[in-house]
Amino acid sequence: MKKRVQVLLEAAHQPGAIISRWESEFFDSVMKQLERGRTLSPAQVAIIDKAEAKVKKFKEGDVEWESQWSGEKLWAWNVAVDYYNSTPERYFGLILDWAIANPSLIPPQHFYKKLVENKYAQKIIKGLSTDPKYPAGSAVMLRANARQALPYSEYYDFNNKLLFVIDPTNRAVTPAKGCRIYSILSSDSAKTFEVEERFIKKYKKIKQQTIDDDYVPF
Fold first, then answer.
1. Which residues of 159-180 are buried (b: 16+ CB within 10 A; e: fewer)?
2. Are 192 and 166 in contact (CB under 8 A)?
3. Pick the residue with more confidence: 1 or 134?
4. How far apart, in whole angstroms, are the C-alpha atoms of residue 55 and residue 175?
5. How far is CA 173 from CA 124, 178, 213, in A?
6. CA-CA 20 to 30 A from 126: which of 79, 120, 134, 204?
7. Sheet strands (E) in the chain
8. Could you give the C-alpha distances from 172 to 125, 164, 181, in angstroms and in order?
9. DSSP for 185-208?
């Protein structure tokens, strides 16, 4: 049993391991118990069996799953990886670490399902799978609600001004409608910034309020 646990501990410390942090800590605790001569419980042995099966399946590969792999799945996988890597909480850290360590490998099916098929990632994928509403070169302006997304100084620097789309990227940081991030250029300076699609609209010249020359105030 010691040898089995040692193999799992070694697998847990390999780059891009599929052994979770909890499992790694569990195996470390189990090893200490075995070194003290304790007998493992059926529940502990069951966890070891399950982890061994997971490692074995990963090493051997999943032929059926790999046969289903496609460019579309790869695109969705990369979008989800980029999205979750950008979040402060960095959910699914084990999967993200694996993706970074193994950029050219097909992810295990259970990794794909967890990272890509949850409702938040699906909203991001849906938002980026359609054509950009504003192609590169489009004249746009900020919506009023952009003040909640941009720093105070940036919002008032760019509000009501003619702006140009440099690049409608394939990135997103929020699972909301209009989540695509745009790289924007100001028309009266070399300043650029990024903003989500939901915070911009087609440019419309603002009418300037004028005072009639014959107007005499009371």
1. eeeebbbbebeebbebbeeebb
2. yes
3. 134
4. 33
5. 8, 11, 51
6. 204
7. 139-142, 163-168, 181-186, 192-196, 200-202
8. 9, 19, 6
9. EETTSS-EEEEEGGGEEE--PPPP
pLDDT tens-digit series, residues 67-95 = 999 999 999 999 999 999 998 888 998 89
Query: 107: which 2 tokens?
Result: 């992810």
Q: Which amino acid is at 4?
A: R
CA distance 42 to 8: 18
Mean pLDDT of the chain: 88
User: 67 phi and psi, to 5 degrees?
Assistant: -70, -20
**CA separation for the pair 167, 144 (Å, rounded):** 22
Identify the CA nearest to 35 among candidates 6, 74, 56: 6
**Count of H helices and E strands in the chain?**
9, 5
Burial class from Cβ neighbours inside 10 Å (0-12, 13-18, 19+) for residue 65 reads middle
Read off the pLDDT band of 208 (50, 70, 90): low
CA distances from 145 to 64, 132, 177, 192, 198 (A): 47, 20, 14, 19, 9
